[in-house]
């Protein structure tokens, strides 16, 4: 297609000349171009290869057509007024210079001819033989000079012809770029104005829904708003084959009163006793009852009184496009961003926020069965995403050596410590000890890319959880988070991917799937499903729910192989008992929309505390200024801290170069409270807590801490 045709194509069109063709597995093909992605599926590996070959050939043909069109002299896209004036002006200047050269050539030819005549006359005179030879040599040199000047003029004419030939190609390329830039700027400006006017209209509307109404309609509203947002995504849409997201299993609820064990089960079917699901002292029963009243029970516990609100977020206007347009394709951690895009918490504090539903792990300690315990661990892994549904602001990037402690040993039985152990790439180490019987540790590296209309955040690194009494050691990794509508529209966040939780002692597994949002899907948004199975692959529990609301667990009493789907895969049918709620999200505090949508725990994370390390995130000045609503001062302080960190990094690099020149080893930055070891379970190099922090806090000996603020 030509540029003009591509400007009027229908929704969903992909330009093959700039598309990326990739294969996921033996049958899947991913075709992407910018923010638009097609997920195609073939019936077999042979058919997939035929499609890939055909697409590659079509891509090569599209590239050739684009190159041929760029070489043509057709006027498919008219030039703007500025181009019409600029390029002919350049050609006119070249022509003028060529005329000057022609005039010089004529003068040279005229004077050269006169010089040759004078030399010829000198030759006819009776002069000594030596003078005649010299005159003849000068005559030859004058002839060569005239020939050279003629050659120069001819070369200049050729250059002018070439410039005229290429002028239309330059003109069309320049015009295309300028039109795209102007069209994008006009669109962004228009949509931003509409967005601002709608926000003002919403704030001034008298008939807004009350808090109780919004709570009762939250689920329906989130579904409608998500679809409304996705419908505006003309340039960033992900298309899947019709059956691509079909579940791998089907769940049927059984009546425990009529359920009986059968001796004629299929091979590989799993069964369970229905009566086991209804025991009064069952851990699931207590979880189902307490998940609704947890916040009330927490209020009854004797604990230190902590703050329940922070200053309201100021309403500052900002030209987002002027900042973002030069950041496309760059690593997010390397982009200088004002605090307007942040929330007054650091990444270390956001990492600590995963512990909001720590009571799930306290209940998991009481489980006698490893598969039951796996259900609570799975619910805990999902609960860490519940705070992200409205939290679209970026946390502060921690400075190298920055720490954050959360000591809740007396209140909830655990204490947590985080440290920024690397700056490029950014990596944070986290260690949590609970006197109620579990320890959690992780090292997370955040990889993020800004793609123009959405931001992808990929946490790298494994999370480890060990229960003291049983020795069960669980390992899992986080899924990808995507923030949509970065430039224009209402920001919204989605989680997608799969989590595999493995108990490395019993070999139990849980496969959780976070279904990405799709405008054409009939499923509830933010859906999470999974199956808990033992070391032999026998399924015991089905997990279901949403990552922003709740997770349920259903005990499998019978499983069988169902009919073959249209994809050629045989689905498993699980007959389960009624689900039990393992986890349910706490309601947000009052006025949360004006406090960055912080939860009750998040409101306390940056609360000033005494006796913390001088590197603690609570003492970071730019973050504190932002929380107080003094954003201009926070921006100045943020730039000062970042420049100070750059100076320290440059000094370390100079020391490394000096050590290399002297043939010495340079260790680089060494974490304060963590050390790198090879993990015995995963075989990966990971930062683990080496001890000493809480002892230093007890003695108030912070001599190891650097001055980073």
Automatic annotation (TrEMBL):
Comp. bias regions, Low complexity: 209-223
Membrane topology: Peripheral membrane protein
Annotated PH domain residues: 1-60
Pfam families in the record: Oxysterol_BP
Any coiled-coil regions, as ranges: 160-201
UniProt keyword Phosphoprotein present: yes
CC per GO annotation: cytosol; perinuclear endoplasmic reticulum; plasma membrane
Name recorded for this polypeptide: Oxysterol-binding protein
The species this protein was found in: Centropus bengalensis
């Amino acid at each position: 297609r030509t540029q003009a045709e591509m400007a009027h194509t229908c929704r969903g069109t992909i330009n093959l000349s700039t598309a990326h063709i990739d294969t996921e597995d033996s049958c899947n093909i991913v075709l992407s171009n910018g923010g638009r992605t097609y997920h195609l599926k073939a019936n077999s590996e042979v058919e997939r290869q035929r499609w890939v070959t055909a697409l590659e050939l079509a891509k090569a043909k599209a590239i050739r057509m684009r190159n041929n069109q760029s070489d043509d002299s057709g006027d498919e896209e008219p030039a703007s007024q500025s181009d019409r004036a600029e390029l002919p002006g350049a050609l006119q200047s070249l022509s003028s210079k060529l005329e000057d050269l022609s005039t010089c050539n004529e003068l040279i030819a005229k004077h050269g001819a006169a010089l040759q005549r004078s030399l010829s006359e000198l030759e006819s005179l009776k002069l000594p033989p030596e003078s005649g030879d010299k005159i003849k040599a000068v005559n030859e040199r004058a002839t060569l000079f005239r020939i050279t000047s003629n050659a120069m003029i001819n070369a200049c004419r050729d250059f002018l012809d070439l410039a005229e030939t290429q002028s239309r190609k330059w003109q069309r390329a320049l015009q295309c770029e300028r039109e795209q830039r102007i069209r994008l700027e006009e669109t962004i400006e228009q949509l931003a104005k509409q967005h601002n006017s709608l926000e003002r209209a919403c704030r001034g509307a008298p008939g807004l829904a009350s808090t109780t109404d919004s709570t009762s309609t939250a689920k329906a509203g989130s579904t409608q708003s998500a679809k409304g947002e996705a419908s505006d995504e003309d340039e960033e849409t992900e298309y899947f084959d019709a059956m691509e997201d079909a579940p791998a299993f089907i769940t049927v609820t059984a009546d425990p009163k009529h359920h009986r064990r059968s001796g004629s089960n299929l091979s590989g079917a799993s069964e369970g006793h229905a009566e086991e699901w209804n025991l009064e002292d069952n851990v699931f029963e207590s979880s189902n009852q307490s998940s609704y009243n947890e916040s009330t029970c927490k209020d009854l516990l004797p604990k230190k009184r902590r703050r329940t609100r922070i200053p309201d977020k100021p309403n500052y206007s900002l030209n987002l496009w002027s900042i973002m347009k030069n950041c496309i394709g760059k690593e997010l951690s390397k982009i200088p961003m004002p605090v307007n895009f942040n929330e007054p918490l650091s990444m270390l504090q956001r990492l600590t926020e995963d512990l909001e539903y720590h009571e799930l792990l306290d209940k998991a300690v009481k489980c006698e069965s490893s598969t039951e315990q796996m259900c609570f661990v799975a619910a805990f892994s999902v609960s860490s995403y519940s705070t992200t549904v409205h939290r679209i602001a970026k946390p502060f990037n921690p400075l190298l050596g920055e720490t954050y402690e959360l000591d809740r040993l007396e209140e909830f039985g655990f204490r947590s410590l985080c440290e920024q152990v690397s700056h490029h790439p950014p990596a944070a180490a986290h260690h949590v000890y609970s006197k109620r019987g579990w320890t959690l540790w992780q090292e997370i590296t955040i990889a993020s890319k800004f793609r123009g209309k959405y931001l992808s955040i990929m946490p790298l690194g494994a999370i480890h959880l060990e229960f003291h009494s049983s020795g069960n050691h669980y390992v899992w990794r986080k899924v990808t988070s995507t923030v949509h509508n970065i430039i224009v529209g209402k920001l919204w966040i989605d989680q997608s991917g799969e989590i595999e939780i493995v108990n490395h002692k019993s070999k139990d597994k849980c496969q959780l799937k976070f279904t990405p949002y799709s405008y054409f899907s009939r499923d509830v948004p933010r859906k999470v499903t999974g199956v808990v199975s033992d070391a032999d692959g026998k399924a015991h529990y089905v997990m279901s729910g949403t990552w922003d609301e709740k997770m349920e667990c259903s005990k499998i009493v019978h499983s069988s192989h169902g009919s073959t789907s249209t994809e050629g895969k045989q689905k498993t049918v699980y007959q389960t008992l009624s689900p039990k709620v393992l986890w349910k999200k706490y309601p947000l505090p009052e006025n949360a929309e004006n406090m960055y949508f912080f939860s009750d725990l998040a409101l306390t994370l940056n609360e000033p505390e005494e006796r913390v390390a001088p590197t603690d995130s609570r003492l970071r000045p730019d973050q504190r200024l932002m929380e107080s609503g003094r954003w201009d001062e926070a921006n100045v302080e943020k730039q000062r801290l970042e420049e100070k960190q750059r100076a320290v990094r440059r000094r370390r690099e100079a020391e490394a170069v000096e050590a290399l020149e002297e043939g010495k080893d340079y260790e680089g930055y060494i974490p304060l409270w963590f050390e790198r070891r090879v993990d015995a379970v995963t075989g990966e190099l990971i930062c683990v807590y080496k001890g000493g922090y809480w002892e230093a806090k007890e003695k108030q000996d912070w001599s190891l801490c650097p001055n980073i603020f």
